Amino acid sequence: MKSFRKTAVIVGALYIIGTVAGILCKVISGPILDSPDFIIKVASNENQITIAILFLLTMGLALAMVPVLMFPILKKQNEAMAMGYVVFRGALETVTTLAMVAGWLFLTILSQQYIKAGTPNAPYFQTLGTLLLEGNNSISTISQIVFPLGALLFYSLLFQSNLIPRWISGWGLIAAALWILGFFLDLFGLIIPWSTPQLILAGPIALQEMVLAVWLIVKGFNPSAIATLSSRQA
User: Fold this and answer.
1) CA distance linking residue 125 with residue 134, whole number of Å
2) Domain residues for 190?
3) Looking at the 3D structure of the chain, how many domains does it have?
4) How far are the Cα atoms of 13, 192, 209 from residue 19, in angstroms, in the given order?
5) Model-level pTM?
6) CA torsion sign, 149 to 87 to 79 to 19?
7) How far apart are CA 223 and CA 214, in angstroms?
């Protein structure tokens, strides 16, 4: 039982680390990358972009470790669904994160070359920079659908196994569905990206994951559910 308690604490801590790192990444990079003259700002704020990249990596790797740690437990409930969770929240999200990191690194190199090249080549560099940003936005869009699909698998397994209170896992299922709704409304241009309506739809999953993280750190998994899963596997 001690190993399961340790797993719960680590998973909870990883959720908090990943969330905090993601927020810090956005806070640091947002004013630079959202600016019309982003290429100049990237060149003049290279250290900030580097820090943002480190936070992005921290977020991606921390959250990718969660399905790896949870798989030995969740497979006792349903191995196929547990593997699907690892694929979506572990492998695919990690790939999208690394692709975004690569895009930011290329943008940093491009911005330095832009400063060296001077004004005559500005349109060429601006076009390349815009392509890199749009490419990263496309990768982010892919991530926005990969994430809730993995979450649906995860919270379905938690709900079925009763490893945590069902009000938390049920909340996760509803919140993931709301995130998907926001994604499709954004995809078809029915709401503005990251406008108030989309934030309202995305907010429940963000809050739920922090509640889940605190619960796992303080309470851990339901001992009777762990015993049931262990006996089922035996």
Assistant:
1) 14
2) 2-233
3) 1
4) 10, 23, 9
5) 0.91
6) negative
7) 17
